[in-house]
Amino acid sequence: MNEDIAKSIEKFFSHYPLKRFKKGQILIYGGDDPAGIFHLVSGKVRQYDINYRGDEVVVNVFKPPAFFPMSWAINKSHNHYFFETMTEVELIQAPAEDVVAFIKEAPDVMFNLLSRLYSGTDGLQRRMAHLMGGSARSRILFELIVECARFGEPQADGSQLIPINESELAKRTGLSRETVSREVTKLKAKHLLIHTGQTISVTSIKKLQDELGDDL
Asked: What kind and span of H or E run contains 39?
């Protein structure tokens, strides 16, 4: 996002109060209509559904300067998802009609929103392909690569540190915790990962991509 667009978004949302939430708070419950649109200033928020077994299935993770849920705001569609803070966050909440009017009047912001939307849709389509036709291994590899691209912290030795644990990885891939643990152990044996509890270090994103290849 370029500086002009960022300033335009910041100026619009500056008219509304900043709110702070602790980790683990539900911002929007599945089945409930949101009270407005959230603009994420700092921290991370996950969007998830609950399957028939009662397991959480994460469909998206938002980072600044995202604002959500835009499908509900634009299409007036019913909200099926839960939105929960993954860290301490700072958010600004604005009425949906105000946000829609703003992006209609700001074509550069609209284009940026569409660009990010299509980028996210491409990622969701690839994830769906792995979920429908891939192995547990390919699903985990793909999710780790996506996590590196979006949230990876480059280290001096060329590795990438990602803030995710096996439990969260299971929710992202739709796999059981036991399956994820087994596959992560195999990747560690190949020296592709170093698992340290709440984080995973990817020793080489290129090697992880080579390991995935065209596997489906």
From this structure: strand 37-42
Cβ 202 vs Cβ 193: under 8 Å: yes
Three-class DSSP category at 133 = helix
Checking if the pLDDT of 216 tops 50, the result is no
**Distances from the Cα of 149 to the Cαs of 123, 142, 152, in angstroms?**
11, 11, 6
The domain defined by 135-212 folds into Arc Repressor Mutant, subunit A (1.10.10)
What angle (nearest 5°) sits at the alpha carbon of residue 44, between those of residues 29 and 209? 115
| CATH class of the domain defined by 3-126 | mainly beta
Q: Which of 74, 75, 91 is nearest to 28 (CA)?
A: 91
Task: Dump pLDDT digits (tens) for 54-70.
Answer: 778 888 889 898 889 98
Which 8-state DSSP code applies to residue 134? -
Place of tokens 């994420």: 40
Give tens-digit pLDDT for 154-188.
988 889 899 888 988 888 888 888 999 999 999 99
CATH 1.10.10.10 residue ranges of the chain are 135-212
